[in-house]
Every structure is written in C-alpha cells, then in structure tokens.
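Comment thread on ticket #2218

A.B. wrote:
> Attaching the input chain for the structure job we discussed in standup.
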Amino acid sequence: MIIDGKEYNVIDVYDQSITVPDSYVMNENKTGKGHGEAKLYMGSKDSMRHFYTGNPNTEGFVVKCFVLKRDLISLLRTIKHEYQYPSIKYRGLGKNRNMLKLWKTRMEYVETLPTKIEFDVKDQHQIIGSRGYVNCIKKGSGYDLIRKVALPFVSYISVMKVQEVETQENSFYWRPFADFTQMASMQMAAQNYGKGKQLENSKQRKRQVQYREELYNEFHSCPFTHIDEFRLLVASHIKPYAVSTKKEQSDSNNGLMLSPLYDKLFDKGFISFGDDGSIMVSDWLSPQNRERISFDYSVEDLNLNEKRRKYLAYHRENVFK
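C.D. wrote:
> Ran it. Output below, let me know if you need it in another format.
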C-alpha cells in the first residue's frame, strides 16, 4: 500500500466499523439538541486497547493516526445526496432546507489540504465502565475534519494498523465511509413519515419483487456458493439503492444475486469486480478473514454486459474500500 509516496504494510484491521454518532459530529451536522464532547465510542475497552497497543490492559494510550484527503473528498462526494436532499432535520439546514451550500464550502476547503493529515488519539480511560472511547489531543486536526465532513448515522469509520516499510513505525489509518444501507432506511422513513404501517407503498414493493425475480431468472444461483434456493439469496444492488434513480433501483442490470455473506461483503465494499470480471478484495478486510473466506467463482456466472459493467464502475469508484 502506497500512502503519500511511502510504502506501508497492513498489519491489522479493527474488527468492527465505528458508527458516526450525533454526539461526535460538528454542530451543523447534528440532529439532536446536545453539543457532544467529540469523544468516539469504539467498542469494548479490551478490544480497543488490544488493537491499539497489543495489550487489553494498557490504559491511557496515545497513538499516532492519520486520515487522507482523498478519503474525505470521496466521502463528501458519496453523501452529497444526503446534504442536498436531507432525510432528517440537521442543524445546518439553509433557507432551501438543504445543506448544499455547506457541502460546497467543505469540499472547497478539503481540496486545499495536504495529502495526509495526522493526529493523535488518546484513550478516555477516565470514563468508568467497559465501553471504550477515544478523543483527539489537538483540536482542528484530522480527527476534527472527519467530524466536520461526516453526517451522523449515514457515516462510519474503519481503522487500519499499518507499518511504514522504511522506518518500521506503526500508525493507524482512519478512513470514513458512507453507510448506504442506513441512508436508504432513513430516506424510506422520511418519505413515508405519517403513513403509519404503510412504510412501503404497493408500487415500490411491486418494483422490488419484480427486480428480485428478474435477477434470479438471470443468475439462478450465487456465483460463489452455487446456492440456488430463492429464499436464501439476496438481490444485491451494485449502485446502492440510496443513491440510485427510480429507474436504476429496479433495473436488473444494477444487480447481482448473492448469498448473504457475499452480499454483505459486496454491499460494504469489501469486494468488487473489474470490467473483465476479476475480483477485487479490499485491504480493509482483515488478513484473518480473507483466509477464512473462499473467493472462488467463474467469471461467466457474473453475467457481465455493458450496462452491468457501468454499474460496477460506480461501485469500484464509490463503494469499494
């Protein structure tokens, strides 16, 4: 892995994605009334400390971290739809009831930043209990940039432990991502607010049933597992449902028929496919899990065509990690 002109080896990946909560983001991005303390929940103290220090009993650690400019830009581009068409009431809503002006200001600022933005995070060991939290030592750092760019609930953070090849020094690569599944859920709730139990109108439900049936008739089984039981397969969208047009949402070319595990890997951007059907496996999938999962399949089973390749190009650019 090459970062800012230097070669790094991937040592480990934190075994859980960290949801960006309302309490963590800057005031304009918040949906609640509180101001928050900028601390970030990372899971249990034991797992957090073991990942950062190698010892679950090491409290009060301080570690070197960084975020990349390209990842901040990628996140902004990906969640522009939520800035422009908010599914919930953010504090930063302008006169037009969106945050597009704020999005443009933030994009312009991020584009002026260096390639790699470093920061230090510290274990919040003063907090009693088993829940592990970190916070940043210096305000205005890369940590705060993530707080400024990310929107709560539709964003999450993954952390990778890397080692610079030349110096053998370890550091932690923080990368923010969009949660397309959560975004789609929030959009659905907003569109059907006040409609009681009818959260899915009949036309939309009919379109998705037809979409699933068309995919199954084309694929018949999962390319990886060859499971062909209709009830055990997932009709995966290549370009995520949350950012697709109505036509794209029901276009069977915008889909793959996958078993649940591979649907999750694809949906979360851990795998993708090239135009030739070759598989791409993300470095953000831990080395241990890469060894546990079989990636054997036949390219012919992907049923690639020109339209599906265009959707896959979007997936590689915006979803793949």
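A.B. wrote:
> Thanks. Noting for the ticket: The chain has eleven helices and 13 strands.
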